[in-house]
Amino acid sequence: MELFLELFSLIGDVFLSFGRESPDEQKIEKNIAALMAFSWFTELTKNPEYDQLIKKNDSVRNVIGKVRMERMEKSVMYEERKERRLKKELKKGSDSSLARGRRGV
Description:
By secondary structure, the protein is mainly alpha-helical. The protein has one domain (about 1-105). It is about 85% helix and about 0% strand. It is built from seven helices and no strands. Helix 2 (about 25-35) crosses helix 5 and helix 4 crosses helix 7 (about 75-105). The chain is globular, with a radius of gyration of 15 Å.
């Protein structure tokens, strides 16, 4: 039953995200501070490359800003989904910065 509710919630998130604007800097910074309570997020910030992406990359910051912290604290499945999404975006940002570095050499 919980899986069904999470799936239904995910579908709702997808439809609601189309009408939403990008989060503002205040929301992003607030979410970063709240995410520091999660061990997986603090581990990500220990990686210098990921830390820079979290601070400066627009698409990574957009993912962070869209996290609904109240749901994050209540649902392990939501937390895991957002963790995977953020890691995917960090990897994508990391790969593109590496590709830029190789072209510059």
